[in-house]
Amino acid sequence: MGTVEPQVASDAQTQLTDGFQLVIDALKLNGIDTIYGLPGIPITDLTRRAQAEGMRVLSFRHEQNAGYAASIAGFLTQKPGICLTVSAPGFLNGLNSLAHATTNCFPMILISGSSEREIVDLQQGDYEEMDQLAIARPLAKAAYRVLHAEDIGVGIARAIRAAVSGRPGGVYLDLPAKLFAQSIDAAVGKKSLIKVVDPAPKQIPAPDAVKRALDLLRGAKKPLIILGKGAAYAQADADIRALVEKTGIPYLPMSMAKGLLPDTHEQSAAAARSYVLPEADVVMLIGARLNWLLSHGKGKTWGGKGHKDWGGQKFIQVDISPQEADSNVRVDAPVVGDIGSCVSAFLNEIRSGWSKPPAEWLNAINERKTKNIAKMAETLAKNPSPMNFHSALAAVRDIVKANPDAMFVNEGANALDFTRSIVDMYQPRKRIDVGTWGIMGIGMGYCVAAAVTTKQPVIAIEGDSAFGFSGMEVETICRYNLPVCVVVLNNNGVYKGTDVDPTGRDPAPTVFVKNARYEKLMEAFGGVGVYATTPAELRKAMEEALRSKKPTLINAVIDETAGTESGRITSLNPTAKKK
Ligand SMILES: Cc1ncc(C[n+]2csc(CCOP(=O)(O)OP(=O)(O)O)c2C)c(N)n1
Ligand SMILES: [Mg+2]
Fold first, then answer.
1. What lines the ligand 1 site, CB under 6 Å?
2. What does the pLDDT look like over 346-358, one tens digit per residue?
3. Which residue among 81, 95, 96, 469 is least packed, with the fewest CB closer than 10 Å?
4. What is the spatial distance between Cα 53 and Cα 50, in angstroms, rounded to a whole number?
């Protein structure tokens, strides 16, 4: 190990190829040109040779961040993002992102090297011994192992198809160390590779399901459309916008669907969310699941009497997975197919005419919207000292408006919830965030993948706790000189910086070192660090970062009393009964 040997495939004398080469050839044959990973036994040479063969190999400081990068690359490109790790510990570090990809329906393949099968299976104590395939299987949409070089082509083809077809997800591919060095005849090897034809075939919805859905929608007095990140993934942006505009139905974007239509669109009901959810009589879900993020379609959010009661709405659910319907409440009109095909079927049907929703409904929404937007504008105009989330995010909002092409990464609790509601998005698939699990740690991995796959500048709005999960990857951002501007909304802790240990011994579990200088971390690797205590300083630093395209970290000092416990999901937090 250790030498670069990109010539094996074309070695005229031996006419041999090997496992390393076949993995690279199989990926390239399928248009996969980027690997997010971290080298070590047994995949070090795979990273070297992939790079020597022109693949982009992005090397991270921790596999979890490489994995998150791969998962979001899958979301942004509809091609499986590849994460490459070493055995046992590297594999486990990557596993979190595999589960994340499956949960979020992002196409991703975690490829891990693994140790000697014979030794692992007899539990004889090999270097980094672990039965990785068995451990990955319950967290993946599919999991495969390849033992023979001749099967690499099939293994990669199956992994690609499983990742992107139907409902996308995370796939695990186990490649034992011995596989890489196996030599086979180069011509046999070449023939064994498979270029996957139509990896994500269209799934056309049944015409009667389309009709049933539109009949229900047509009869609604208070219809509502909810766009989920499945709708963003579909890349059917023009049709989705046409459906919303032609029907005239108010819509709500879920977090990562923001920007499918500009958030400033007159039909957006986002500023009247708490009014439209309980009031709507027919709700069309497009690529959005009725999970916790939509309060399971029931309870007080939806106008139910008790916290588990159905509010009485009828649901139309447009989803690629037939199993999604009835997951929480009855779905009266399931429409199963890929979002693009379903939306285009709706458009075909409504071409013959559609009457807009009743004016009372639209007026009632507009009234609430106008009131809430005015109230928010008042809050945003304040300029308190120290700066709070609102005054900082008012600056961020203007910057995003002026740079609608920029990618936008967001994580934290208050840093997430305030940003989502204050910062408008103007284009599809710009906002990428904590997703289905509300996971902390996606930040810097997402920044790298967003910069690499879209070639656009990236803005990341990070809670100080959230940032810490992947902070070391600022070195990765500097190493590849990516145009990433990280803003740490620094309130000295998780939710707030004000907690104290009642015994007086230690810092409270939710607080960090006060006035930490996160910007110096970026400076350590040659990037630009800025310490900002006012919205004006923050604005200036962001403008400069976008202009210069230099890796930048702005430490935005936020009033440590400003946040709330758990941000907007305080109700999910069990609190100890007071004695
Ligand atoms: C992997 C993971 N670990 C822990 C949590 C619990 N958690 C939710 S938000 C959060 C951090 C919130 O603090 P910060 O990022 O500073 O945001 P703030 O509310 O202070 O703006 C944590 C630790 C999580 N969501 N994911
Ligand atoms: Mg914080």
1. 412-415, 438-441, 463-466, 489, 491, 494-495, 563, 567
2. 999 999 899 999 9
3. 96
4. 5
Sign of CA dihedral 202, 204, 205, 206: negative
Q: Are 406 and 400 in contact (CB under 8 A)?
A: yes
- Give the count of beta carbons closer than 10 Å to the beta carbon of residue 90: 24
pLDDT in tens, 424-461: 999 999 999 999 999 999 999 999 999 999 999 999 99
pLDDT digits (tens, 9 = 90+) for 500-517: 999 999 999 999 999 999
Distance (Å, rounded) from C-alpha 52 to C-alpha 50?
5
In Å, how far from its chain's centre is CA 500? 34
Centre of ligand 2 from the C-alpha of residue 393, in Å: 14
Cα 421 from Cα 442, distance rounded (Å)? 20
Write the CA distances from 75 to 136, 247, 333, 428, 554, integer angstroms: 21, 28, 27, 12, 27
Residue with CA nearest ligand 1 atom 20: 495
Closest atom of ligand 1 to CA, residue 469: 1
Identify residues whose C-beta is under 5 A from ligand 2, the ion.
463-464, 491
pTM of the model: 0.96
Picking from 352, 348, 351, 338, the residue whose alpha carbon sits closest to that of residue 205 is 338
